[in-house]
Design a protein that fits this description.
The protein is mainly α. It is about 70% helix and about 0% strand. The chain is built from 7 helices and 2 strands. It has helices at about 10-55, 75, 90-115, 125-145, 160-190, 195-215, 230-260; strands at about 1-5, 265. A two-stranded antiparallel ribbon has the order 1-2. Helix 4 (about 125-145) crosses helix 5. The radius of gyration is 23 Å and the shape is globular. The protein starts with a strand and ends with a strand.
Length: about 270
C-alpha cells in the first residue's frame, strides 16, 4: 500500500538545504562568470587607467618620483594585474568557490526557517520551501538592491566603505522587518473570506515598511560623471541576475527535494 512521509527531522531538512544551496550556488557562479565577469574586467581596466593617469605625471620629477620597487599606496589600490595577491584568473575561478559557500550558508538558513515555520502553517513542504526562499530574496537582495544597487570596481570612495556597509546591513534588516510585517498581516487576515484582501494586506504592509525605511535612510551616489552608464547598468543587471538565480534555484531545488522525499512509495 502507498506510504507517504509527512514529517522531516531537522537533520533531514538541513541536509536538503545544504544540497539545494550548493547546487544553487554553483548555478549562480556560472551566471556571474558568464554575465558579470566581462563587466567586472571592463570596470577594472577603467580603474587601472585612472590610477595610471593619476600616478604618471609625478614620474617626470626625478626628485619626487617613487621608485619601481616601492609603488605608492594609490597604485597598489588600483592593481588588479600580475602584482595582485590573487590573479584575475584565480579570482574568476574563486568566484565559484564564493558562490558555492554562499549557497551552502543560505541553504542552511532556509532549512532552519522552514523547520520552525512549518509549525505555524499548513502549507505543504515544497510550497513552504519555495515561499521561504522567495521571501529571503525579497528581504536580503531586492530591498537592499533597489536602495543601494551594486557598483563595479572603480566606483565608490574607499573612505566611505564602512558607512556603505552599515547602510547595506540596515537595508537587509529593513527587508527582514518588511517581510515579517507582511507575514504578520497575512496571518491576521486569515479570517477574511476574500483572498484578494489578504494579498493586498500583505503587499501594502511590505511596501509601507520599505517606503518608510527608504525615506529614512540616506541616499548615496558615488558614481563619477565619466563612468560609462551602459557598463554600470549592465553590471547591476548581471548582479541582480546572479542573486535571482541563487535564490530561485535554492527555492526550486529545496522544493523538488522535499517533494521527492514525500512522494508515495509502493510496498
Amino acid at each position: 500500500m502507498p506510504l507517504t512521509v509527512t514529517t522531516d527531522t531537522f537533520k533531514t531538512l538541513l541536509f536538503r538545504g545544504l544540497l539545494a544551496g550548493l547546487i544553487a550556488g554553483l548555478l549562480a557562479g556560472a551566471v556571474a562568470f558568464t554575465l558579470g565577469e566581462p563587466h567586472v574586467q571592463a570596470a577594472i581596466e577603467i580603474e587601472e587607467a585612472a590610477g595610471a593617469a593619476d600616478v604618471a605625471p609625478h614620474g617626470h620629477d626625478a626628485d619626487s618620483a617613487p621608485t619601481a620597487s616601492a609603488p605608492t599606496a594609490e597604485s597598489e589600490a588600483h592593481s588588479h594585474g600580475d602584482d595582485a595577491l590573487v590573479s584575475r584568473t584565480g579570482q574568476r575561478f574563486g568566484l565559484f568557490l564564493a558562490t558555492g559557500f554562499a549557497g551552502l550558508a543560505l541553504g542552511a538558513i532556509v532549512a532552519v526557517v522552514v523547520h520552525y515555520a512549518r509549525r505555524f502553517t499548513t502549507l505543504p513542504g515544497p510550497l513552504l520551501a519555495a515561499s521561504v526562499a522567495g521571501s529571503g530574496w525579497l528581504a536580503v537582495e531586492a530591498v537592499p538592491f533597489f536602495k543601494y544597487p551594486a557598483n563595479p570596481p572603480a566606483v565608490g570612495d574607499p573612505d566611505t566603505i564602512d558607512e556603505r556597509t552599515l547602510l547595506w546591513l540596515a537595508t537587509v534588516a529593513l527587508g527582514l522587518v518588511a517581510v515579517a510585517a507582511a507575514v504578520y498581516v497575512g496571518r491576521r487576515l486569515l479570517g477574511q473570506g476574500l483572498v484578494s484582501v489578504r494579498v493586498i494586506g500583505r503587499v501594502a504592509a511590505f511596501l509601507a515598511i520599505v517606503a518608510i525605511g527608504y525615506l529614512a535612510l540616506p541616499t548615496i551616489n558615488e558614481v563619477g560623471d565619466d563612468f560609462p552608464a551602459t557598463l554600470l547598468w549592465e553590471f547591476r543587471v548581471s548582479s541582480l541576475a546572479t542573486q535571482a538565480t541563487l535564490w530561485l534555484a535554492l527555492g526550486l531545488m529545496f522544493a523538488l527535494l522535499t517533494e521527492r522525499a514525500h512522494r508515495p512509495v509502493n510496498r
